[in-house]
Amino acid sequence: MSEGDSIGESVHGKPSVVYRFFSRLGQIYQSWLDKSTPYTAVRWIVTLGLSFIYIIRVYLLQGWYIVTYALGIYHLNLFIAFLSPKVDPSLMEDSDDGPSLPTRQNEEFRPFIRRLPEFKFWHSATKGILVAMACTFFEAFNVPVFWPILVMYFIMLFCITMKRQIKHMIKYRYIPFTHGKRKYKGKEDVGKTFAS
Description:
transmembrane helix; 196 residues; mainly alpha; transmembrane
């Protein structure tokens, strides 16, 4: 390779202005994401606010139903991944290698590990809403459809998918929400002191 052949480098071997700009922009974006990590409720409130703005926009414009349907399917896919365990118990049924979900009360505590962590779920859902919002500014994405059929199809798809997911949860006995390790009470203190 000759000098300047690698991506983002100019002829003199230094990073190009465009590459440095987008690199710096990516660093700033990542910094804001890192700062928002501990504020779960605030992040989700902002995302719900964006969803509300998007719904109002689609309602007022009376269009972009295909984009809204695609956004709904995308969010459903993210939600199913959020509810699913990282290691599918149906695949681990026959083999004993690897971690498994506890099935009895006296087993060691193992927290539920999701296939899609909460932060990535939030991040992907928010990006999806912003992309769908951007699509509403282009008439090319306003495909004329009879929207009640899309709504009915989405409701059917949601019910069938959630029924399958709930059956999976019941069959392999896991709950996708853990609140920490169970605490046990010791013997009650009667207040007597021991003399030595």
